[in-house]
Model the fold of this input.
Amino acid sequence: MLARFSLYGFLKNQRYFEPFLFLAMIEKGMTFSQIGILIGLRELMINLLGVPMGAVADVLGRRRSLIFSFGAYVVSFVVLGLASSFWVLAAGMILFAVGESFRSGTHKAMIFDWLAHEGRNADKTRVYGYTRSWSKRGSAVSVIIASALVLLTDRYTDVFVLCVIPYALGIVNLLGYPAWLEGAGTKGAPMRDILSTLWRGILDVLGNRPLRRLLTESMTFEGIFKVVKGYLQPLLESLALALPLLVWLGDRRRTAVLVGAVYVVLHLLGSQASRSADDVARRAGSQDRAAGWLWTGYLAVFVTMAIALALGFPVIAAAGFVFLAVLQDTWRPMMITRIDDHAAPERQVTILSIESQAQSMFAAIAAPLIGIAVDALSGDLRFLPVAGLGIAASLAILWLRRKSITGDFGRA
Done:
C-alpha cells in the first residue's frame, strides 16, 4: 500500500499550473487584486464545503469521496484552461474548491488507518513524511513538464488542461485501494449520521484545548504559505526580464526557464525536508519544540525578505520563498501527526478537514487584501506586503506560544 499511497501523492501533485498560476492569470488579463479575489473565493468555498464534506467522507466512504474529488478537479482544469472571463474563472475556482473539499484530510486518514491496521502507529510521522516526499517529487516532475510546455507553446494557460491526464490516472489508482479503507461508514448512511459526525468533530475541537492551539498554529502557518507562495512567480518573472540571459528565447520562455529551475530545486528540497521531519522532531526533543524552531525560522526568513526588497536585492527575496517552502514541508508531517494524536479515530477526516478549513479561512481573508496592497505599490517594493504579513503573523504566534507556557493560551 505504501507504493499506492506514494503514487496517489505523485499524481495528485501533477498540477502543471502551480508554478505559473499567477502568470497564467495575468496572461488572461487579471490584476493582482483580481487574482487575490479569485484565490480568496477558492479558499472561502473550500472553507464552506470542507468540513461537511469531511464528515461525508467519514460516513459514506473515503475512497468514493476521493474519486469524486478527482472528477471535480478534472472539470475545473478544463474550465480554467479555456476561460478568460473573471466570472467563468471564478466558476472554475469553485469547482476546484469542490475537489479540494472532498479530498482534504481524507487520504491522510486512510494512511493512518492502514498504519493502525498494520500495528505501526509509532511510524506516523516517518511514513507520512515518506509519502509526502513522493508528492514533492511529483511536484518537481510537474514543473519540468509545465516548463517544457510553456517553452513549446509560448503560452501559460495550456498547462491547466494538461492536468486532466494524471488526474484520470489517479482515479485508476484509487480504484485499486482495498474496500476496507473506505472507513467505518456504510453506503446510503442517513444524513443525520453525517450531521452527527460533523457536530461531534466540532465539539472535539471546541472542547480540546491542545487541539485548539494546534489548529490556531496550523491555520496561521499554512494560511500564510497559501497566500504568499504564488508571488514568487511574478518576482521571478521580473528577475528573468532583468537578466541579460537567453534573450533570444523571448520573455515568456526566459521566464519559464527560470521559474522551472527554481521550482524544481524548491520541490526537491521540499521532498528531502518532508522525509527529514521525524529526524528534526527527534533532535528537538519533541514535535512541539520543533514547531517552535520552525516558527522562529519562518520569522527570520520573512524579515530577511523584507530587508532584501527594501534594499533592492530581489534575488535574496526569491531565495527566501524557497526557504519558506522547505520550512513548510518540514512542518506539515509533524503537524498532521500532532493533530491526529488528539483526534478520535472515527472522526479523523472531520478533524483534519476542520484543520484544513481553518487554513482556508485565513487565506480567504488575507489573499484579496494582499493582492490589493501589491497592486498599490510598484517595482519590487510591491512585494513588501507579502513579507509584512509573514512577519506580523509569525510574531503573533510566537507570542501566543510563549503565553501557552504559562497556561493562558487556549484556556476555555
